[in-house]
User: What shape does this take?
Amino acid sequence: MKYSVDYLQDKNIVIIKMKERLNFQIAEQYSKEAIKVAHQNDCTKFLFDHTKTTLRDGINKIHMDGEELQQFGFKNTDRIAVVVANLNYDSNLSVPESQNSRWSTLKYFSADNIQEALNWL
Assistant: This one.
């Protein structure tokens, strides 16, 4: 399996770690697993660790835009931190955009700021 979904009980956060190549079906699969774990634990905070994900076409291809997240089942009450190996690769993602009110709150962090991502959640 190229990903893992774990629940950190002490922080009430679901952590998804992805390795290797990613496609839409895999992103949908681990997202749905993460949502199931979160619902079982009354959790609305998610950390997606993409530091070991192979990015062919940049961060835009990790299927984390608002519409895709909503399609996977994430709600506007969910808070999502995305950690990538090199945030400068697509530096425009580090700047918050105006979001649709039906979308989850999403923020990108670089690999050396995982603790900051956990604190933000």
In short: Residues 69 and 81 are 13 Å apart (CA to CA). Confidence is low (pLDDT under 50) at residues 94-98. The longest helix spans residues 24-40. The first strand starts at residue 3 and ends at 8.
